[in-house]
Amino acid sequence: MATAVELTGLTFSWPGSSPTLDINHWQVAQGESVLLRGASGSGKSTLLSLLAGINTPQKGVIKLFETDLSQLSARQRDKFRADHIGYIFQQFNLLPYLTAVENVLLGVKFSKHRQRKLSQSATNTATDYLLRLGLTAAQQQQPAAQLSVGQQQRVAAARALIGGPELLIADEPTSALDADRRDNFIKLLLELSAANNTTVLFVTHDVALAPYFNTHVELTEISRAMPDAELNNA
Ligand SMILES: Nc1ncnc2c1ncn2[C@@H]1O[C@H](COP(=O)(O)OP(=O)(O)OP(=O)(O)O)[C@@H](O)[C@H]1O
Known about the structure:
The protein is of the alpha/beta class. The chain has one domain (3-233): P-loop containing nucleotide triphosphate hydrolases (Rossmann fold, 3-Layer(aba) Sandwich), CATH 3.40.50. Helices cover 35% and strands 21% of the residues. The chain has 9 helices and 9 strands. It has helices spanning 44-51, 74-84, 100-109, 112-116, 122-132, 137-140, 149-161, 179-195, 219-222, and strands spanning 3-12, 21-29, 33-37, 59-64, 67-68, 85-88, 167-171, 199-203, 215-218. The strands form 2 sheets. The chain has a 5-stranded parallel beta sheet, sandwiched between helices. α3 (100-109) crosses α5 (122-132) and α3 packs parallel to α7. Adenosine-5'-triphosphate is lined by residues 14, 20, 38, 40-46, 227-228. Adenosine-5'-triphosphate binds next to α1. It comes from Idiomarina seosinensis. This is Methionine ABC transporter ATP-binding protein. One of its GO terms (molecular function) is ATP binding. InterPro entries: AAA+_ATPase, ABC_transporter-like_ATP-bd, ABC_transpr_LolD-like, MacB-like_ATP-bd, P-loop_NTPase.
């Protein structure tokens, strides 16, 4: 099976700190759905930011679908991210004055590659995803700032999924959802991902989500670094 993610000899430190991550080797196969767990402060979001090319490691190689990110300029990394990665951030990063639909459309706006993968118009896809995620037609036309936190979370998911990115990175995307909505959300997210052969890396503290994923990884299993005090009892 083709490899989606491959990390080799990777270390990353924030300025003035001991290494947050020290990963000898880790790989994820294409189409796999990975649940990534770890204590608070252990470096999960840091790892995701490296995979998305937002930060770069001091040492080591990050390959995504055979592309070595270190060989790309910052601009090329931005393009690579826009084309191939859907990212659901912990804080969603929606534009507050744009409507829910307009926010979702941002997911394909900067990528011809993702536009070409749409099977219907971008707007129809956006409204279809939002409807399936439980936002009414009226809610879809509201500015993001007027939506509840749980609704914003689902808008962020639709934006990440539109245009079938090869890799979906999700950082605690269910924290604001109640149990019913969370289960529907995760099922739909994985269903849409599987339909597009999207590889999923999903960070959560919620153990109830474990059965939905085919691979479970604890950050300390792949990274030797033991950063700050919060890890002492991990
Ligand atoms: N922008 C930053 N600048 C400096 N240090 C940072 C920055 N972001 C994170 N860190 C540090 O890196 C370490 C790992 O943080 P990170 O956010 O990756 O952990 P996490 O596992 O995602 O935590 P949580 O589960 O609480 O979200 C922490 O010690 C944190 O203080």
